[in-house]
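Key result, reporting period 2: structure in, sequence out.
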């Protein structure tokens, strides 16, 4: 065991080193036991050789508060024009170009895409990057798409696989396409589920490509791709909820830290302000009913998941909260499905907050075909209760429904 005095002495040495903040000192010492154990022949034995004592933990926490953090490199965001220049540069390897295109659209951390210095130092360079097993090919209205799931997030010890999958769809004409990039990548490297997407790409390759196409005075690093995703979404006036989900950030406050302003943002803001001056006062207008996604969510709507394996009946459970009940498309019978939210477990409904309805409606499609069975009976019940003036009707118990009840007009997705 390493004595407490020795641990405190090492922390004091780090404190005297210029350009080392208190939070960095705490981070260094907390990582030491794991780092030493990884290089020990017996992991458990190596881990026991160095355990941070409670007294040292208190001292490290105090240092993290007392010693201000050192300002790190201020990264600039990568914009779409830079990504397009890189994607058209034949001198950069095709795998590196594909990695940059996919990274920009997904907004993932570099460690979740390629091998980075931090993971190589511990011999875990293949532990976090995306593998083909993390992707699922989809067909959405005749278009090839991918559903991508992060296997391990930044704090994988406390949560892993909690974020909803990301959807990659074909890009607009003239823009670098992430779906084509993944397809060509699979042709070159194979799609073995245990194989990482970018086996020959590292953070150094991303850095070299970004540095080559950076504008004069720009500081671009692999993390600039993640910053660029948030900044571009903010410049497009997308809601903060979209930005938060795009980068798998835990809160809107954290997502906002990644947004960088630009001349383009300034011009759009000035244009919007000028247009607002020409409009009548908003105070005299009646409030507009809030819509969710491409259409307004209404109790009794029936949606279908992209995999076409589950239908969902929407029910307004209480103010600001919805429930989506699951059904089998072929028969309309009630079924259970793995919930997208925590805790991930089988359930017969999914809970949606008011802020999550738009996201859910993007991930599902209106049920166009006539439905029957229990789904139709439940939908009719909910619609009838709403028409009767009941504010939050839940779906009925099985004993309260009438067999073979025809679907009500307008019950489906439209």
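The corresponding designed sequence is given below.
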């Amino acid at each position: 065991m390493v004595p407490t005095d020795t641990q405190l002495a090492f922390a004091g040495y780090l404190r005297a080193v210029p350009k080392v903040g208190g939070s960095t000192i705490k981070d260094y010492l907390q990582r030491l036991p794991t780092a030493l154990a990884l290089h020990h022949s017996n992991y458990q034995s190596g881990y026991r050789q160095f355990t941070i004592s409670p007294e040292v933990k208190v001292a490290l926490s105090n240092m993290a508060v007392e010693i201000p953090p050192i300002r790190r490199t201020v990264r600039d965001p990568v914009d779409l024009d830079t990504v397009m220049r890189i994607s058209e540069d034949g001198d950069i390897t095709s795998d590196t170009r594909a990695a940059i295109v996919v990274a920009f659209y997904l907004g993932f951390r570099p460690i979740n895409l390629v091998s980075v210095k931090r993971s190589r130092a511990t011999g875990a360079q293949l532990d976090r990057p995306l593998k083909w097993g993390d992707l699922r090919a989809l067909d959405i209205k005749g278009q090839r798409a991918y559903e991508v799931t992060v296997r391990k997030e930044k704090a994988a010890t406390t949560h892993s696989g909690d974020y909803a999958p990301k959807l990659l769809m074909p890009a607009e004409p003239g823009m670098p396409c992430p779906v084509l990039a993944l397809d060509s990548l699979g042709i070159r490297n194979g799609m073995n589920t245990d194989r990482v997407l970018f086996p020959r790409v590292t953070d150094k390759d991303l850095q070299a490509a970004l540095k080559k196409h950076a504008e004069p005075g720009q500081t671009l690093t692999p993390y600039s791709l993640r910053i660029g995703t948030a900044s571009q979404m903010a410049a497009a006036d997308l809601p903060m909820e979209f930005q938060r989900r795009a980068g798998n950030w835990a809160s809107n406050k954290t997502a906002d830290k990644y947004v960088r302003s630009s001349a383009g943002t300034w011009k759009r803001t000035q244009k919007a302000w000028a247009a607002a001056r020409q409009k009548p006062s908003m105070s005299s207008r009646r409030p507009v009913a809030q819509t969710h996604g491409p259409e307004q969510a209404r109790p009794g709507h029936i949606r279908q998941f992209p995999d076409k394996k589950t239908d969902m009946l929407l029910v307004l459970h209480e103010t600001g909260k919805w429930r989506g009940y699951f059904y089998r498309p072929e028969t309309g019978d009630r079924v259970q499905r793995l919930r997208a939210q925590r805790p991930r477990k089988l359930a017969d409904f999914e809970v949606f907050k008011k802020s999550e309805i738009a996201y859910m409606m993007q991930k599902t499609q209106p049920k166009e075909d006539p439905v029957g069975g229990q789904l139709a009976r439940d939908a009719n019940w909910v619609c009838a209760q709403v028409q009767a003036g009941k504010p939050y009707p839940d779906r009925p118990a099985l004993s309260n429904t009438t067999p073979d009840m025809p679907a009500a007009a307008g019950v489906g997705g439209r």
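Residues 5 and 56 are 9 Å apart (CA to CA). The beta strands are 135-140, 143-148, 166-168, 302-304, 311-318, 321-327, 337-338, 346-347, 349-353, 365-366. This case is discussed further under Risks and Mitigation.
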